[in-house]
Structures are given as C-alpha cells and as structure tokens.
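Is KG4 placement plausible here? Inputs below.
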Amino acid sequence: MASVLGIESSCDETGVSLVRDGELVAHALASSMEEHARYGGIIPEVASRAHLNSFIPVLEECLAQADIDTNEIDAIAVVAGPGLVGSLGVGVSAAKALAFALGKPIYAVNHILAHLAVDRLEHGDFPGSFIGLVVSGGHSSLVHVRDIASDVEELGGTLDDAAGEAFDKVGRLLGLPYPGGPHVDKLAKDGDKDAIVFPRGLAAGKYRHTHPYDFSFSGLKTAVARSIEGAQLREQDINPADIAAGFSESVVDSLVTKALRACEDYGAETIVVGGGFSANSRLRALLAERMEPRGIAVRIPSPYLCTDNGAMAGALGWELARAGIAPSPLDFSVHSSLSLSVPCLSGDMNA
Ligand code: KG4
Ligand code: ZN
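Reply from A.M.:
I modeled the complex. Tokens:
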C-alpha cells in the first residue's frame, strides 16, 4: 500500500500525516492544550470543538507538505479508540467522509497500538516478538506483540491513574503549571531521589505476584500529598525538587520493573516504548540502565512522535495494509475503551 493518510483526534491533538511506503512524508498537527491549561485538565467539549475548527486546516497543511491531491491517497487510517468519545468522533467522521468520497479503504486503528507502530517509521521493522510499554496521560499499558497488525496480547495496565496523569496531579500539588509532567521531570533533576522514598504500589509486596503487569499510582499521589501536608503542619521546609525526584523514581521504578519482568517472562529481546510520558528523562535513563545490560534493546521514537499525532495512525494503517488485513466497514463506531488486543476494528466489532 503506497500512501496512507493517518488521522488522530482522540484527545487534544488534531493530527494528519501521510505515510508512503513505510516512510513519514508529511506531518501536520494542531493542539488545543492552551485552551485547557487554565482549567488544569482537558475539557472534552472544548477539545471536540477545537478538532472541528482544526481538522480542515491540518488536512490541507498535510497535503501541501506531501505535495499531493486527495485522490493520490491509497487508504485512510483513523484512531477509533481508546480516547474521548466526542474527540474521536470528529476525526472518525472526517475520515469516513474522505474514504467515502474518494472510494478508498479505511482502517479504524487502535490508539495505544498506534503509539507503538509509529516507532517503525524511525527504527525499521519490528522483531517477531517484543514487549510494548505505552505511557501517556491516559494509559500505562504493557502488551506482548507478535505481530502489530494481528497478534497482540494485553498483559496489564492502569488500575487507576496513568503515569502521566499522576505526574500532572503531583505537578498541581507542587504548584506547577498544567500539564505538570514535563515540569515535574525538570524539577526532579535538581532533587535527591533518595531523600524521600515513596511507596512502589503494585510493584512491591504481594502485589508483585497478584498483579505482575498492572500499575497503580493513585496511592502514591496520596503519599506525596500527605508528605507535603505533614511538612507544612510541622512547619518544616519542604524541598519540592526532592519530592519531585522521589516521586519520579517511584513511578519510573514501577514501570521499568514490570516492563523488565514482561520481557523476561515472554523471552522478548526488544522493548518498544511510546506515549507522551516516554519523553520522561528518568524513564529513558532507567530503561537504558536496566534493559541494556540484560541484552534487551530499547526502542523509543523521537519526542515529536511520542505525543499524539497522525503519523501513528498512518504507521499502523500501513502495517495493516501490508499484512493484508481487511479494511474496516464504513459503519464502525468509536470505542472509548477499545481493548488493546484489537489493532483494527473489523466487520463484527459493532455487533
Ligand atoms: O500521549 P500524550 O501526549 O497524550 C495522551 O494520550 O495522554 O501524553 C501526555 C502526558 C501528560 O500527562 C504529560 O504530562 C505527560 O504525558 N508528559 C510527561 C513528560 N512529557 C509529557 N510526563 C513526565 N515527564 C515528561 N517529560
Ligand atoms: Zn496517546
């Protein structure tokens, strides 16, 4: 399949990209984050309206970058879930309209698996078996992938707050701007990660065995809040950088410990990491520190491909087309909590 137009609108980013012969040739993006920042969180209705305003200009920018006309597109791939229903609906409606008008096949692709598929654009074909770790504002998920187009097993995920979400909430506790993730990451570099040791949630004690691949960060967030309140009550000075460093270490240690366990349990020699949180500097350092000595290769896309974008949809659509997977029927629905073992919606998904 030569040219696949990728469309993503699952949260606050409107992304349209063109993937041709497995290469990223055009990449256009708009974000409504500034409109949400003053509320301290994503407002779904605001995000949906922003997608409506942005879609046509972003599509036009992508086509201009690629220097093609819509009839030169061979297939369309659109993120159909998981994500915010109203936001997903805008990209999906636009993608369906394009597919119908152009008479081209459409692939309704999985948001989380698309975060992994995008890595192929930079680092080439995937090995026959790998572990995927997707960490974002909405997900902390581990999957075992034998074939990104057809054979994915969900191993575990977020029981409460996702990694990025926990960082955003701790950012708020520390008085940092929204979204707090990158600010907490930066502040943590000035702190001592061992000054305050926070709990490891499901990575410690008996939960290591009962939830080998699941994550829980909400208790940790409460522990951080208690630590700040306790210091204030005792009128002690708190060092926000030490809190950020101890908290970051707890989240990242849990992520890397479970990801390593998955690699060992499934005999995988490669881990692919995706999602906005994979920009986190401590995660990148600890992955390298713990995986590489064990012979496990770490693949992480460039930061601009880690956050939500159209290239990830295009990359997964291109893989599906290459594998000969049947396109989705035009009457598919958006799925706000689509299972991670489904790379693409098929004809029987709406039943
Ligand atoms: O994948 P993404 O762009 O959107 C979602 O699908 O959620 O991820 C955004 C999340 C936010 O929670 C943001 O705070 C977090 O990723 N994030 C970070 C860093 N950069 C982005 N968290 C920690 N450290 C960072 N450097
Ligand atoms: Zn995402």
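Short version: Residues 111, 115, 136, 275, 308 surround zinc ion (ligand 2) (CB under 6 Å).
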